Amino acid sequence: MSTSARQRFTIEGDFVMEHGGTLKDPVIAYETWGTLNFQRDNAVLLFTGLSPSAHAASSSKDSTTGWWEQMLGPRRPIDTTKYFVICVNSLGSCFGSTGPASIDPVTGEQYRTAFPVLTIEDIATSAQRLVESLDITHLHAVVGASMGGMTALVHTILFPGVAEGLVSISSAARALPYSIALRSLQREMIRSDPDWQGGNYEGHGPVTGMRLARKLGMMTYRSATEFAQRFGRERVPEERQSGDLFGVEFEVESYLEAHANKFIGTFDANCYLYLSRAMDLFDVADHGGSLAHGLARVGARRALIVGVETDALFPLVQQREIADGLRRDDREVDFRALPSIQGHDSFLVDMDRFRPVLCDFFNCTMNQPGRLRSV
Amino acid sequence: MSTSARQRFTIEGDFVMEHGGTLKDPVIAYETWGTLNFQRDNAVLLFTGLSPSAHAASSSKDSTTGWWEQMLGPRRPIDTTKYFVICVNSLGSCFGSTGPASIDPVTGEQYRTAFPVLTIEDIATSAQRLVESLDITHLHAVVGASMGGMTALVHTILFPGVAEGLVSISSAARALPYSIALRSLQREMIRSDPDWQGGNYEGHGPVTGMRLARKLGMMTYRSATEFAQRFGRERVPEERQSGDLFGVEFEVESYLEAHANKFIGTFDANCYLYLSRAMDLFDVADHGGSLAHGLARVGARRALIVGVETDALFPLVQQREIADGLRRDDREVDFRALPSIQGHDSFLVDMDRFRPVLCDFFNCTMNQPGRLRSV
Question: Would you state the CATH architecture of domain A7-175+283-372?
Answer without folding.
Answer: 3-Layer(aba) Sandwich (3.40)
